[in-house]
Amino acid sequence: MAPAHRKNLATKPPLFILRTPGDARQYEAAVHRVLEALRRSIDDNGRLVPYAHLTAAPDTELLSERAGTCLQVPQHMVPDRFPHFQVVQGLVTYLRERPERGPGARARELREHACDRQQAEHRGLLGRLPASEPPADSIRGWLLRVGWLSFARKLPRRLWSGWTSRKVMRAWLAGLPVAAGGRTLFAVVDQVAAVQAVRLRTNPHHEEALQELEELLVRALLEDLRTPPVGGVLPRRRRRTARLVLLVELPPTGAQGARAAERFLRALHRMRDTAAQPGPLVIAVGQPSPALLAELGGPPESNFTQAGLQLGQKDGPPVLVTFSEAALAGPGLPMGPVAPRTFELSWRTATSIVAALAALALVGAGLTVAGSLPDPEDSSCLGGSRSVAESARATPSA
User: Fold this and answer.
1) List of E strands, 22-152
2) Strand ranges of the sheet holding 245-250, from the earlier edge strand across to the other edge
3) Which of 20, 226, 307, 371 fits as disulfide partner to 276, beta carbons 3.0 to 4.6 Å?
4) Residue 282 is inside which H or E element, if any?
């Protein structure tokens, strides 16, 4: 991505909450209308910017998991990589699926699970290693298996887990209160499991336990969504030229999915202060509860003009805009689609063109060097056409 296209990614926009009026029946129609208008501005028969539409989900679901897996990019744009989110999401899923296990002393188990998942999904170094072990039916096979376990399985897994743990801890996890002095990623997650696994085992809807897991996932996702590096002549580098957008449906209090949506927005508000720019543009549409608005700092109501001015602010407070019943009953104003920089060719095509141009340049340079060398078949003397034998003296010199 060229530096000229990065100025729009220099800030972290605030969280926008668009509040709709009415009862349950009016709520569904109003939310559908607003979200569809927003979606059409960023999706014109194809995604114009990377976005995810988070609809109402069961209260026990972590919306950050769906946000990390549903973020898709426009055509010909290289997708974002999620090294932090994928690792943490795998560990959180592992803990939630096994709440009956006793807490504590599970760091090694978590590390082995992360390595197994990395290898099973064919990602990185571990994905290139063979999954089956050689048979140990003879001394030679036993020695081969011992060597294979040491150099083709244990050593790469140790290296990957150590490198991943250091990267996550140094980037963001060590600064969170949940780390509590833990030295490795797997030790920190084990500490989380020591408390939250007990709560989830007795009550799968335990709000405090789900909130802490949600915050872990949201912070990992924000770390992966920081400003992408400049691609330059490398087409495979990330080329995100627009801010990611998260459209969140916010059901009224007591409705299905309200707790999950508010939990996600609460985690996003808490974690965004420690994350690097740019951060996604999050727009929640629905009916927030008074408790959520108090958690967000009690944002005052704004009109759409004031809300638009907040887009360019850095680390601004949440913005609350309320639709009136008259506004929703009217035809509304048309919203034009966004126009970010797009790519006409896929990264594979661009890579082929760059490789072909480089090959032609090398061939041309080789031909130029070859044309400047003397002809090995030319045996004539410099300054004459006769050979050395024909030019020799008839009598020897004194």
Assistant:
1) 51-54
2) 51-54, 245-250, 281-286, 16-19, 319-322, 301-302
3) 226
4) strand 281-286
